[in-house]
Amino acid sequence: MKITLMKGGAAWCSPCKNLERRGTLQKFAEAHPDVKVEIHDDTEEGGSARWEAWADRWKIKNLPTLIWVAGGEELFRSGDVSAAGIEAQYKRALKAVGK
Q: Domain 3-82: what homologous superfamily?
């Protein structure tokens, strides 16, 4: 079962900007090609209506939020966007899907 890591953020969010500047998710995606990484923020193509629909669908309340998904269902979510935290979450997601 394919695991997806979705990040919800915003252009005005300082932790989101730091995450982008460090390239943490890009580095994670390169190291783990088995995980689909999706970035969703208020500046994505389609504008705020698309962002709001996505944020409503996934009930985003805090930024940044990482949501781990498999089979279209949420496994868990986290606000820990450190490289070490994301690696630990990846291991947790693997266990959740029986890998």
A: Glutaredoxin (3.40.30.10)
